[in-house]
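Researcher: Last one for today. Full complex below.
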Amino acid sequence: MSSILKAFDESSELVEELSSQIAIILKKEILRKGFATILVSGGSTPKKLFEKLSNCSLDWSNVKVGLVDERVVDATSLDSNENLVKTYLLKNKASDAQFINMQNQNDLFPFDIIVLGMGNDAHTASLFPNNEKLKEAFETKDLTINITPSNAPYNRVSSTLYAIKNCEHIFLHIEGEQKFQVLQKALKNSDIYNMPISAVLNDKDIQVEVYHT
Ligand SMILES: O=C(O)C(O)[C@@H](O)[C@H](O)[C@H](O)COP(=O)(O)O
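Model: Here's the assembly. Have a good evening.
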């Protein structure tokens, strides 16, 4: 399968469409099995998406929200992804959603939705280029792995490639020209150690919906 690219002129249009697609899937899964699970990324890109999603009408009390990765910091730190999600997503109509931290990732598996981000260095989650743990992160059947980045702050706990692939709906959300250039390079790239996002984008067994401005 190949990646599907969805281009938007404006960030607000992207956020509108992605949040409504996510809401549709969450509702469908709640109807089907009584609950729905979603893993989200940290960073600055998802803030507007979180705010939009938090105003979507659905039975949030049956939604479990987890993380694609986390920094090893106090949960109240401004650099904590748990704090980010609690501040921007678990509010308004979504205030009843249940947050599940990385240590309890198993409670969410298999995941219904993952929303990945990407750095300008082509990392996704906390799978950083040429990191010493990357081979293990690509090959293990564990859901999470501890990673020490060489070029980013804090030790991390990251979802593994196995965790990311075992998800029904995989979205990549990127904004800006620079990231679009990185995306185009990553789509043609076969060195997954140099550009970890390529391991997700170019995997023949999965389909990734790329939402980009
Ligand atoms: O917690 C994190 O840092 C991430 O999950 C990470 O993979 C993020 O998605 C990218 O670094 C993009 O971050 P920005 O959105 O800030 O560019």
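The chain has a mean pLDDT of 97. The helical segments are 11-33, 47-53, 81-88, 134-139, 161-165, 177-188, 197-201.
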